[in-house]
Design goal:
Rossmann fold, 11% strand, Serine Threonine Protein Phosphatase 5, Tetratricopeptide repeat, 5 domains, five-stranded parallel sheet, six-stranded parallel sheet, alpha/beta, single chain
Length: 792
């Protein structure tokens, strides 16, 4: 039954509910029926059902509102004299009501209409508590007829079983709109299930109720102080509720529009508020402005070709023209990226450029299309800067000839698909880890730059540690990472995402091959991954035709699996050493307390900022355990903070100088491609090539993998051996080597401090955000100048 259950005088239809085992539906219809009909049989049945529900007072009312009772009914009436009525006094709920109103008032909502509606019409409502301890509300309508609203029912079960959401909720669902609240239970459920669905995001919930009486009722029944204080709950009450609903969207263009409406109004006769029409009107207004702005911006930027941008960048970067205007965007619903964008903005401004960063203002907002377009129209940027996303994801937002700088920090497989990479256009520039893959997909190498994630020394240049901080954080060895998931747990999680049994079997075989390959090669690099995939295909007979799946295997599954194995194996070495020597080891990050063997060393998450600085400085030794090599954001942050590091050695950690000599020799010999590199007769070149890459020349097709191009891409980076003094001294590649290095530096604090200071100076000079961002812009400007000259 619903709140709009239609009263019927058809007693057979009413009795049919009881015969069908639906006593509450029977009572919902029988109550108004008996107010108009003196039907002894229905009255007797209703009294019995009320008593079964412990609703004594409604039963007594049926026995006292008429003098024409059968002897059986009269006997029941007399027996009820001493029983508790079960009615809940509204005065007992008034403190809760007023506390809820106080929260709404603090949020700026006018509460007097709610209070007045209750004072005027609240007496028409009665509240009872049934045998399930659930509230049942009896309302006397304008004609004096009693009605259960929305019905007499097991409301908790109904709210629990109501379908929600109408489709998979997703990580960042659209808002939901409620036409009324009913008795509030379903809204509570939706509120709980949509809270913090992804890194702090909680979708907006809109409530529209033209009659404040029904809001007042819910505020008596439920303690909603925390819920009502949540800024994602938007409540509009009164005759103008739909107009005020639209104002929410007019005042905040980042507030998404709802796609689903739940109708829960209790009893609302007459015309209903045009809720769906209000949402559609707001969508139409946004759509009209979006179309107008797109037309304006496309026309404006169509006049700015590659030659224009080459000249614009050259003038800005040489100081002969206005600084660049850079528009960036990052979500607050990220872990590291929002802080990376903060530091990039600081560096860009230090270089003299203007920079605006779009982000969400509240946990329930998203950066919407209209915000992008309005900002581009007002700011007229020379560059759109984004982390971990490509232009194809912004096709609806950006003018085609507005340059886009993508900084790939994570090689996300769902972003860097072959289809997205092929859509990289002439006004795009990509920096970060994906140059090799983008070149393989046919991109112009000139619009790609290999780059690492730097550090921000300003964030780690705080005052010396206090005595309390030293006591709290000092230890012999510490490690900071959220990568607590075991290799097996990672494998099972990824396996569970595949629905094809053949793909699952392929993952199982790769997982079985991984330990031996890790023992042999230390890391599961792309070259190792190619070897593993070939062997797994041979063993399973699987035919791999989907190139995106192959890339997912290499760049996600095998890399992440190898990453977990590489880290956890080294941590086991350190843990064993700590147990044997009595040294202290602390592992910071989420989830380590659940690790099967390392949980005794779990120290909980470390907050970005001061706490991380304290950990780096107070730990006598910090660990860097990255299969990608020593130079990584975590080690750079730690060095910037003044921490000392030991690192697990990777195959190329000590080959930076060799790589530089190899590429220089390639250039001296005018080598132009992989074929010339492999067949060139120069003995020095051949010696250098075999020293750097010899073990892979007969295992991985150097032509298919463009060995020539890959070497040049690697040479775009500064390698640790080239820039850090005595770098080899801090590396270990076994449990024994770790123990020897750790004991040496723990007993030589002055040498530890000297090496830390030397390495920190290198980090500030070469691996901080300011030189990194300057390098990005200059490389991008050079690309535009070259393309501009070609198009002239």
């Amino acid at each position: 039954m619903t709140a709009t259950a239609v009263e019927t005088s058809d007693r057979e239809a009413i009795l049919a509910h009881l015969r069908a085992g639906r006593p509450e539906d029977f009572l919902t219809l029988a109550t108004p029926y008996l107010a108009r009909h003196n039907d002894g049989e229905v009255r007797l049945l209703a009294v019995r059902e009320y008593l079964r529900l412990n609703l004594v007072e409604p039963a007594r009312t049926l026995l006292t509102d008429t003098d024409d009772l059968t002897p059986e009914l009269a006997s029941i009436r007399d027996s009820l004299g001493g029983l508790a009525m079960g009615e809940v006094s509204w005065s007992a709920l008034t403190p809760r009501f007023e506390a809820n109103l106080a929260v709404l008032e603090r949020r700026g909502l006018e509460v007097d209409p709610i209070r007045s509606a209750w004072a005027e019409r609240g007496p028409t409502l009665r509240c009872f508590c049934d045998k399930r301890s659930q509230h049942q509300i009896l309302w006397q309508d304008a004609e004096g007829v009693p009605r259960w609203i929305p019905s007499l029912a097991d409301h908790e079960r109904i709210d629990r079983d109501r379908p929600f959401p109408p489709e998979p909720l997703g990580l960042m669902p659209d808002p939901f709109l409620f036409d009324g609240l009913g008795l509030g239970g379903f809204f509570e459920r939706v509120y709980r299930e949509t809270k913090d669905t992804f890194l702090g995001y909680s979708c907006a919930l809109f409530i529209v109720e033209p009659d404040p009486l029904w809001i007042a009722l819910v505020l008596h029944l439920r303690d909603w102080r925390d819920l009502l204080a949540d800024e994602r709950v938007f409540l509009t009450v009164g005759p103008d509720c739909t107009q005020r609903l639209q104002r929410f969207w007019e005042e905040d263009a980042n507030l998404p529009l709802p796609r689903h409406v739940f109708s829960l109004n209790l009893f609302r006769p007459g015309p209903q508020p045009p809720i769906v029409e209000a949402v559609q009107a707001a969508a139409d207004r946004r759509g009209d402005e979006i179309r107008r702005l797109r037309e304006t911006l496309n026309a404006r930027y169509a006049e700015r070709n590659l030659r224009y941008w080459g000249e614009r960048f050259e003038a800005a970067l040489s100081g002969n023209g206005p600084p660049l205007r850079i528009l960036a965007a990052v979500s607050t619903h990220t872990t590291f990226l929002q802080y990376s964008m903060r530091d990039a903005k600081r560096a860009l401004e230090a270089l003299g450029h203007e920079c605006i960063v779009l982000t969400e203002s509240t946990p329930c907002t998203r950066i919407e299309t209209l915000t992008y377009l309005r900002t581009i129209d007002r700011f007229d940027p020379d560059l759109f800067f984004i982390i971990d996303h490509l232009r194809p994801e912004f096709d609806e937002l950006l003018p085609a000839q507005l340059p886009v700088l993508t900084w790939d920090q994570d090689q996300l497989p769902h972003v860097f698909t072959r289809d997205n990479i092929r859509k990289i256009g002439p006004y795009d520039f990509v920096v970060g880890y994906s140059k090799g893959r983008c070149v393989d997909a046919g991109c112009d190498p000139r619009q790609l730059l290999n780059a690492r994630v730097p550090t921000c020394p300003e964030q780690f240049d705080g005052p010396p540690l206090s005595e309390d901080e030293r006591r709290r954080y000092t230890c012999d060895v510490s490690y900071v990472s959220h990568a607590s998931q075991t290799p097996d747990a990672f494998h099972q999680e990824e396996r569970g995402k595949r629905t094809d049994p053949a793909e699952q079997r392929l993952l199982d075989v790769l997982y079985e091959l991984a330990p031996e390959m890790l023992r042999r090669y230390t890391v599961l690099s792309s070259a190792v991954a190619e070897v593993m995939i070939r062997e797994a295909l041979r063993l399973t007979g699987f035919r791999l035709v989907d190139e995106d799946f192959r890339q997912w295997l290499i760049n996600w599954y095998l890399w992440r699996l190898g990453d977990r194995m590489f880290r956890h194996e080294a941590l086991e070495w350190v843990a064993d050493w700590a147990k044997q020597t009595g040294r202290t080891l602390r592992i910071y990050g989420r989830g380590w307390e659940h690790h099967p063997t390392l949980s005794p060393f779990a120290a909980g998450p470390a907050q970005n900022g001061r706490e991380l600085l304290c950990i780096y400085r107070a730990s006598r030794i910090n660990l860097q355990l990255m299969p990608a090599g020593f130079v990584h954001q975590r080690s750079l942050d730690g060095l910037a903070a003044g921490g000392f590091f030991l690192a697990r050695r990777t195959p190329y950690d000590l080959k930076g100088v060799l790589l530089r000599r190899l590429v220089e020799r390639m250039n001296e010999q005018n080598v132009r491609d992989t074929h010339e590199l492999l067949t060139h007769p120069d003995p020095t070149l051949r010696e250098l090539l075999h020293a750097f890459h010899g073990q892979w020349l007969d295992k991985v097709d150097p032509y298919a993998n463009d060995l020539f191009g890959k070497l040049h891409i690697l040479a775009e980076l500064d390698h640790p051996e080239e820039v850090f003094p005595r770098f080899a001294d801090i590396l270990f590649d076994s449990a024994e080597r770790f123990a020897e290095r750790a004991e040496y530096f723990l007993t030589h604090p002055e040498e530890r401090e000297a090496l830390t200071n030397e390495m920190r100076e290198v980090v500030v000079r070469r691996f901080s955000y300011r030189p990194t961002m300057d390098r990005f812009l200059r490389a991008m400007g050079e690309y535009f100048r070259e393309r501009g000259r070609e198009s002239a």
